[in-house]
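User: These chains co-purify. Model them together.
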Amino acid sequence: GQWSIVIHGGAGTIKRDAMTPEKDAEIRAALDRALDAGSEVLAAGGSSLDAVTAAITVLEDDPNFNAGKGAVFTWEETNSLDASIMRGDTLEAGAVAGASTTRNPILLARKVMEESPHVLLSGEGADQFARDQGLKQVKPDYFFTQHRFDSLKRHKARAKRREKVSQLDDDGKFG
Amino acid sequence: TVGAVAIDRDGVISAGTSTGGMTGKRWGRIGDSPIIGAGTYANAKCGLSATGSGEYFIRLAVAYRVCSQLERIEREVSEEAGSMASRPGLAAQVAQLAADKAITEVGELGGSGGVILLAPDGTPVWAFDTPGMYRGKATSDGQRQVAIY
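Assistant: Joint model of the two components:
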């Protein structure tokens, strides 16, 4: 009768000096809410699948995390969402890649697992399946967050600088 | 990237992962998150969700590799002298070693990132080689932790 849950909200270079106390508290509160959502399901005797989707949905809806609402931008300034889910005792699995209009990709991955004969759907087909299954759809601006858009701009500027440097390198190489 | 792994009162383990991928990705790039066996996997004895430089997690089949190792070790220990679950702490130690090893292997290839997983006895475990990983755990016996660094 024991249960447990472990969650993550991404790994990387999280600079202490760039993290304000307010942002730190905001992120910890979001992680707490995700743990609560999963724990409540499990404590009530619910399934681990429901707990996992409950916890991940909270994180997808929070702009602090790179998933759902807080997703990063592609080079084309769009958002392209991936998700997967798996049940251990039956080895059932479902996944989506490159979805762009489905609010909660983890719910779509679960629908793929439970309502389709497939494991992995991608792109517009995945979103079409989500619509067929009645999952909530959103317009692209739902996924817009200024800090992610600014990150993309910085990323493009860095890429452009690298291109200039390599152009100079080539000129030098050929005299 | 976000993820969760849980075991319910019936002993069923599930794992899930969701992500927006890499900033500035092009050409329809897909990382490890939707690749079953790379960024997400679950079997009867283990569940895992990964985050990090996805291409390396794909090449190493990290999620499947770790869960497969734990399932095999659990089976061997069970045949020898009873289930790992009946030996306090053993399952978690083995799971931690497997997770650490997987992250080390990702690092050796040039990648970085982290994993969360549940050991065969349901103990939450994590490993990462980045300066931080947003993470948390809760159990029915009252353990609860949220951490960043």
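The first helix of chain B runs from residue 54 to 60.
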